[in-house]
Amino acid sequence: MNQAIRNSWIVAVALFALLFGAVSYVQFFAVDSLNTNPQNNRQLLANFCSNRGPILVDGKAIAESVASGTDCKFQRSYNEPELYAGLTGFFSKFSGQYGLEAAMRDELTGNTDAALFDRISQVFTGAQQQGRSVELTIDSTIQKMAYDMIPDNVGGSIVVMNPKTGAIIAMVSKPSYDTNLFATHDAAAFNASMKELVDRDEISLAGSSAYTGLYAPGSVFKIIDTAAALESGKYNKDSILPNPAELTFSGMSYALPNYANGQCYTKDKATFAFALENSCNTPFASIALDLGQDAMTAEAEKFGFNDTSLKFPDRVATSRFPGSEGTLDDAALAQSAIGQRDVLATPLQIAMMTAAIANGGQQMAPNLVQTIRTPDLKTVSSLTPEVLRQSTSPEVAAQITDWMVSVVDNGIASAAAVPGVKVAGKTGTAELGLDESGVMLNNAWFTGFAPADDPQVVVSIVMPKVDVATGAQLTSPNASNLIKAVLNK
Amino acid sequence: MSQLLTVAKPRRNTELLLIIVALGMSAMANALVNLNLGRNFDNDFYTQIAILGGLALVFHIVLRLKAKYADPVILPLVIALNGVGLAVIHRLDITSGDSAATRQWMWTSLAVVAAITVIWFLRDHRILRRYTYISLLISVVLLILPLVPGLSAGSVNGATVWISIGPFTFQPGEIAKITLAVFFAGYLSSNRDLILLAGKKIGPLQLPRTRDLAPMIVAWLASVGVLVFQRDLGSSILFFGLFMVMIYVATSRVSWILIGVGLIVVGGTAAYQIFPHVARRIDVWVNAFDPEYIGAAFGSFQVVEGLFGLANGGLFGTGLGQGTSDKLPVANSDMIIAVIGEELGLIGLFAILCLYALLVARGFRAALGTRDAFGKLLAVGLSFAVALQCFIIIGGVTRLIPLTGLTTPFLAAGGSSLLANWIIVALILKISDAARRPIDVSTADNSKPTNDQPLKEVPSP
C-alpha cells in the first residue's frame, strides 16, 4: 500500500510540476507575446496614462504629456495640431496610435530594449517610467510657410528635404485636422470627432498625404525616363529624339498626344533639352518603347518605386510602377513612361527621386527624426545619413541636373527661378479627367533642387485635382519661395 | 515501514513559531493592500489580525490538548493561505465596493470552529469507518440537493451546484468531497482483499466480482451525474480523480489505473460528443485568443484577461492593489490566482504553489505514517483531492487545461469551500496525529483485531 501511496505522491508532484511550468510560461516566457496581443489593452491603457516623451520641433514640443489631475495621470496634448497632424498622428485610448506616435512608440514610452536598464532600476527605485523625447528634423518656419502655401480648398502636399542627408525639412499636407480632438479621454467626444473625420475621406489617419497619398506623377517621371535612356548606352546627351504630334499603336484606336501647353508642336524632332524644357510626351514614350518594359521597371525601382519596406520611421506608402506585375502593352508602357495610367507616387517618393539626382545619383534614406534623448537629456541616438541605394551614376545625374536647370532657365518651370541661384526643376501635369463643368483636372507637380552645383534643398509640390492655370500658380512660384527661404537660413 | 517510525516528538512549539510566521505574512499582505490603495490602518486592520491570530491560537491549543502529535507544518500552511486569501479578497473589495471579505471572515471563523470541533470530538479517525455507507448516502443527498426545487439556487455561471437557505448560499458538493472520500476509504479498506483476490482473472487483469464492484460503480455514477445534471465539469473530474487514486492505493494494481484512464477517455469523448457545454469548454480553450470566442457568452474573455493580467504582473508583480485583474468576473473566487499572480508576480505564485505542494506533501506523509488502511486511504484521498483541485483551477487559469469552475482551496472567496477544506485539514491533522503518535497498545481500537491492519505487504502477483 505504501508503494502505491508513494506512486500517487509522484503523480501529485507531477501535477504541481505542470503548474510550476504553466505559471512560468505565462508569467515569464510568454509575457511579451501576451502583452503585445492585439486583444490586450492593458499596455495601451497603462501607456495612455503614463508620461510619454515629447515630440519636439526646434526644441519646442509639438506633442507632449501634461498632468491631467485625474486617475489617468497624463493627457497627451498637441501644439499647432493642424500644422503637424500628418507627422505626429495622435495617441488615442480608444483607437490606438498613428503616425510618429505609433512609429516611435517604444522610444516615447521608454520601452525600448535599450531602455531595459532604466526599467530595471525603476523596479527598485519605484520611479515612474518616463519616455524619451524625439526631436524632429523639421524646420518650424519652413513648415509653417509651406503649410500656408496650400489653399484650404485644395488638398495638396509639399515635401522639403535635404538631398545630402535625407533629413525632412518640411512636410505638410492639407486638409488637416485637430489631433487634440482624438487624444481626449472622453469616449463620447472621441466618437463624435471620429465620425466627422471618417466622413472626410480626403483626410488620412495613417499620416500626411505627403507620404501616404498616391498620385499619378505625370511628367516629373520623365526624369526617370531620361536616366534610363542615358544609362542604356543607346542615347547620349546629343541624341535626337522623335517628337511626333501623337504616337499611335498598331491595332488600337488610342493615340498618345504630345503636351499641348508648351512649344512641342514646333518641332517633329527634339533634343533631350528641348523635350524636357517643354515636357514633350512622345519623345519619352518612344524611349520607353525602345528600351522595353523590363528596363523601365528596373530604372523606376532604382529610384524607389515598388519599395514596400520604406520607413522614415513611419511606413511610407508604396509608390507603384506597374511593369513588375505582368506584360504591359505598348500603349500602357508609353503612358506609364509619362507618369500616367497605373503609375502612382507619393510626394515623398518624388522628392527622393529628385534628391537622388541632386546627390550625384545616390539616394539617401529619408528621415524625420533628428535626435532621441532620455528624460535627463542624454542623447541616445541622432540622425546619421544613410545611403538607401545608388539610383544612377554621377555622370547621368550631372547631365540630368544640367537639363533640369535649363527647364527653369528656358522652359516651363521658369517661375521657380531664384535670382542669383541655379535652380534645377521639372514640372508635371498628370491628367485626371474632366470635371462636371468640362474643365480638365490635373495633378500639378513641381520637383526641383538648388543650388544646382551644390544642392542644399529639394522641394516637391503636388496640388491634386486642379486646372492647369491654378496648378502652375501653386507649384513653381511656391517652390521658388521655399528654396529662397531655406537657402537664406 | 520501519524507517518512518522515528522518535516521536510533538513539535508543537515548532508549530507555534510557524503560525507566527504565517500570521505575519497575512498581516503584511493586508498592510500592503491598505498602503497601496490609500487606506489607513483603521480598527478593522487590527481586529482582523486579532481574529485570525485568535483562531490560530485556539486551534493550536486544541491540537496541544487533543492531537499532540499532529503534523506541525499543516496548520501554519493553511493559515498562511487563508490569510493571503483574505487580504486579496479585501483588496478586491476596495476597488469593487463589494463586502466579500466580511463574509469570508465569517466563514473562516465558522470553518476553523468546525475544524476544531472535528479535532475535539473525533477521538480517532477510524471511528469514521463505521459511517462508510451513511457517508455514501449523505454524499448522494448532498449531490442531489442543488437539483431539488425550492432549495436550488438555480444555474450560476452555467452550473447548478448551489443551494440557498435564507440569505445563505451553499455548495453541498464541497462537503460531498469529504463524505465520498470517507465512503471510498471505508469501503476499500474493508473489501480490498476481496477485490484483490476474488473474481476472474482474464489475461493480466484481475477482474473483481460484480457485487464487490457495485458500490464503486454507484460512486462513479455520482461523479458522472454531477457532470450531466449539474454541468459541473470541474467537480466531476475531481470526484473521478479521487476515486481513481483511492482504488489504486487500495489495490496497488496499475491495471485499475488503465481501466480508469480508459473510462476517462470513453467518458470524455462521450461527454464531448453529447454535451454541448463540455464541447464548448474545449473549443473555448483551444481558440481562447480568437476575438470571436473572447466576445462570446461563456467565451474565453475570463481566461484571456486573466492571462493578460498574469503577463502584466510578470516576474515581480505589480504589487498588491496595483493590478488590473480586479475587473475580472469572479476575480475573488475562480480567478483569484490570476489576481495574485499579477500583483505578486511569478515569485508570489511560486510561493503559493509551494505552500500547496507542502500541504499535500504533509498529507501524503500522514498517509504513509498511519498504521491503518482506512487512515491511509482517507489521507491520500483528501490530500490528492487538494492537489487535483489546485491543478484543475490553477491549470485552468493558466490555460494549461480548459477552465472549469472550482475554488482555489483556502484562497478563494466562498464559504462552502472554506468549510470543507478546513474539515479536510482537521481530518489530515487527526490522521497525522495517529501516524506520529508512539504506538500505544492500550488503545481500544488497536486491540480489536480488524482487517484494516495491513496484514503484510502482499507481494504483487
How many helical stretches of chain A?
19
How helix-rich are the residues of chain B, as a percent range?
55-70%
Q: What string, H for helix and E for strand, traces the elements of chain B in order?
A: HHHHHEEHEEHHHHHHHHHH
Give the low-pLDDT segments of chain B: 442-461
Kindly report the spatial arrangement of strands forming the biggest sheet of chain A: 3-2-1-6-14-15
Largest sheet of chain A: 6 strands, mixed
Helix and strand composition category of chain B: mainly alpha
Residue share in helix of chain A: 25-40%
Organism (chain A): Arthrobacter psychrolactophilus
InterPro entries (chain A): Beta-lactam/transpept (IPR050515), Beta-lactam/transpept-like (IPR012338), PBPA_dimer (IPR054120), PCN-bd_Tpept (IPR001460)
Domain Penicillin-binding protein transpeptidase (chain A): 156-476
Protein name (chain A): Peptidoglycan glycosyltransferase
Can you describe what's shown?
The complex is a heterodimer of chains A (489) and B (461). With 489 residues, chain A is of the alpha+beta class. Chain A has a domain at 218-373 and 384-487: Beta-lactamase (3-Layer(aba) Sandwich). Chain A contains 19 helices and 19 strands. Chain A has helices at 2-29, 31-35, 42-48, 81-88, 99-103, 105-109, 116-125, 140-149, 187-199, 209-212, 222-232, 272-277, 282-291, 293-302, 330-337, 347-358, 394-410, 468-474, 476-487; strands at 55-57, 60-67, 74-78, 91-92, 96-97, 133-136, 157-161, 168-173, 240-242, 246-248, 255-257, 269-271, 362-364, 369-373, 379-382, 387-390, 424-434, 440-450, 457-466. Chain A has a 6-stranded mixed beta sheet, covered by helices on one side. A 5-stranded antiparallel beta sheet of chain A has the order 8-7-19-18-17, sandwiched between helices. In chain A, strand 17 (424-434) and strand 18 form a beta hairpin. The model of chain A has no long low-confidence stretch (mean pLDDT 89). Chain B contains 16 helices and 4 strands. Chain B has one domain (2-440). The longest helix of chain B has 34 residues, at 336-369. In chain B, helix 2 (43-66) runs antiparallel to helix 3, helix 6 crosses helix 15 (415-436) and helix 12 (301-313) crosses helix 13. Chain B has a two-stranded antiparallel ribbon. Chain B has a two-stranded antiparallel sheet with strand order 3-4. The two termini of chain B are 21 Å apart. Chain B has helices spanning 12-36, 43-66, 74-96, 100-121, 132-144, 172-197, 210-230, 233-251, 254-274, 276-286, 291-295, 301-313, 336-369, 373-397, 415-436, 444-447, and strands spanning 163-165, 168-170, 201-202, 205-206. Chain B is mainly alpha-helical. The radius of gyration of chain B is 22 Å and the shape is globular. Classes of the chains: A alpha+beta (489), B mainly alpha (461). The A-B interface holds A 1-9, 11-13, 15-16, 18-28, 30-31, 34-35, 37, 39-40, 42-43, 45, 123 and B 1, 245, 248-252, 289, 291, 294, 304, 307-316, 324, 341, 345-346, 349-350, 353, 356-357, 360-361, 364, 367-368, 373, 376, 380, 383-384, 387-388, 390-391, 394-395, 398-400, 454, 457.
